Amino acid sequence: MTVEEQRRPTGAEAVLAGLDEQQRAAAAAVRGPVCILAGAGTGKTRTITHRIAYGVHTGVYTPEQVLAVTFTARAAGELRGRLSALGVGGVQARTFHAAAMRQLRYFAPRVLGGPLPELVENKLRVVAGAATRHRLTTDRASLRDLAGEIEWAKTTLATPDDYPARARAAGREAPFEPAAVAAVYASYEQAKQRDGTLDFEDLLLVTAYALEEHRDVAREVRGQYRHFVVDEYQDVNPLQQRLLDAWLGGRAELCVVGDPHQTIYSFTGADPDYLLGFADRYPDAEVVKLERDYRSTPEVVGLANKLIGMAPRRTGLPGLRLMGQRAAGPEPRFLEHPDEPAEAAAVAAACRELVDSGLPAAEIAVLFRINAQSQVYESALADVGVPYVLKGGERFFERPEVREAVLLLRGAAAGRDDGSPLVPAVRDVLASVGWVEHRPPPGGAARDRWQSLSALVDLAVDLVAEQPTLTLAGFVGHLAERANAQHAPTVQGVTLASMHAAKGLEWDAVFVVGLVDGVLPIAQSLARPDAVEEERRLLYVAVTRAREQLTLSWSLARQPGGKRVRPRSRFLTGLAPDAPVPVRTRVARRVEVVLEGPAGELFERLRAWRAATAAQASIPAYVVFNDATLQAIAETRPGSLTELSALPGIGARKLELYGVDVLAAVDAELPD
């Protein structure tokens, strides 16, 4: 053996090699209770897997006696994979539900007198039956909200009798009066009992009951699992905590990992007090902070620290202040726009520029507060030929309520094309499916549905401002064009995601958009200071998704020509400069250049052709091609359909519709 080989760390020592000082302290703390406060980008997964591996290699843990609990199957799989790479197998890494199901399936004959009951496959069907029994009129959105209320009640350990008072105290926005929701909740539980089924919340509840009430079960489970690790502990709800306490049985061999700054799921029942109060519950707990951020540049980290530093100090564990470990990068940008379409166009143009410069589209994200905001960005990215993927929701034109509305609009257009004003016609059609202007319903799913339908009305308003004579038939044609453009393959595209859906992810370049009061913080949070602060943490999560480039933007009006009175988000006070940076997109600059010389002449002729084509089809001009695409044509002068198809904004459908005409226009301009 060489001297170098003799010096190379082995076994337990090798597990700690390569960790920074804070990570090493956490990994070496193998005896509980331990609380690891892990800030964004600080390597928490690396730390907890090395901690488990170190405990195994030092003989403190037997792998099969360790249970690591996560919130997603993907995270559990990642834990197992990393442990395997560290030479540790046999550790149980599972979600709460997967761990409970495994245990309950084994103990069901002893606890329930038979095999594990079937799980409810379609909760909405059972909720719908319960709602019908109480003569409640529901649609799919209100059913989803009812199901959400029942899940919230069960995860917070509220019974049907408890629900009304607990819901009012928590400021819940239920789709019906609390007493009506409680009645449906009770009927739902009775239906499950009659059918002999369990839902996913029951898995945790019955497993906890088995451990609490059956000594033999508790003895066997606690003998099997002696060391526990819980990831994302700030997101634990009372039901999960009850099961965790049942697993522990009064023992303290527990390591929890979490970040109080990333508490953004209180509306689902998550209770950050379990993390914040951990040291009070376990006075001898070792608390280790991970603050070295390896994800983001110091500029992004500095902004994140400043943002969260403005929040009121919460009692409990010490705070976290991230320290950027990467090389310096660009300063975050704050951009103000006159209206939402202008904001979306600027973001799309910036994405186009990043992609053209060599940054993969998959390394770019556009983050917004509510899913309904995606529509304008889906359209803007399609207009400049940048592919996208929508995470955590359906594409705008694939949402059930949008598909239903488009069908109704198409039917209305076929039945009447009498030149009636477009916007009132659209409002009338959507009113037939329960949409009421300026009256968003309570409940998340119902509100999302209302916002999607409102987005269609807003789109009609925008188009009429540009083309006052647009008919309902022309509007339907415009919707079809947009839907076709947005159904192109988008696997490697820019990510469009809500801020909630973005948690746990990261990109090189992030655009955080729509930052106006009433959207972030969202309007329904404004009556409760604690809810407003959760909205601040949501923005913190969005900011810390960026590795290198971060842009935060807002618009003063919703539509072009509207009053520019919307206040930017209160969370930007003290962060954004008082004098907003004027926005001039790359596309706008290129238009100014293209308008000179032969390319400028071709550009103007293409615009004239586009106007005539759009008028003949009764669609807005930019639905044919936007200015960026016309510029690209004028600059490159494509000589074949293949060359034309390579330009931004020209998909297969537009190539089929307009390709030959465009080539003819270009050919007519070629010099002799």
How does this structure look, described?
The chain has 672 residues and is α/β, with parallel strands linked by helices. 51% of the residues lie in helices and 11% in strands. It contains 29 helices and 16 strands. The strands form four sheets. A six-stranded parallel β-sheet has the order 3-2-6-7-1-8, sandwiched between helices. Helix 11 packs across helix 12, helix 16 (298-309) packs antiparallel against helix 23 (529-543) and helix 24 crosses helix 27 (627-636). The protein is globular, with a radius of gyration of 28 Å. The N and C termini lie far apart (79 Å). It is an enzyme of class 5 (isomerase). It catalyses: ATP + H2O = ADP + phosphate + H(+); Couples ATP hydrolysis with the unwinding of duplex DNA by translocating in the 3'-5' direction. It holds the Pfam family UvrD_C. Its EC number is 5.6.2.4. InterPro entries: DExx_box_DNA_helicase_dom_sf, DNA_helicase_UvrD-like_C, DNA_helicase_UvrD/REP, HRDC-like_sf, HRDC_dom, HRDC_dom_sf, P-loop_NTPase, UvrD-like_ATP-bd.
Offer a quick outline of the entry:
51% of the residues lie in helices and 11% in strands.
Overall radius of gyration = 28 Å
Strand order of the largest sheet: 3-2-6-7-1-8
Q: Could you describe the largest sheet, including whether it forms a barrel?
A: 6 strands, parallel
Q: What is the count of helical runs?
A: 29
What low-confidence regions span 5 or more consecutive residues with pLDDT below 50?
1-9, 487-491, 582-595
InterPro entries: DExx_box_DNA_helicase_dom_sf (IPR013986), DNA_helicase_UvrD-like_C (IPR014017), DNA_helicase_UvrD/REP (IPR000212), HRDC-like_sf (IPR010997), HRDC_dom (IPR002121), HRDC_dom_sf (IPR044876), P-loop_NTPase (IPR027417), UvrD-like_ATP-bd (IPR014016)
Domain UvrD-like helicase C-terminal: 298-548
Organism: Klenkia terrae
Domain HRDC: 596-672
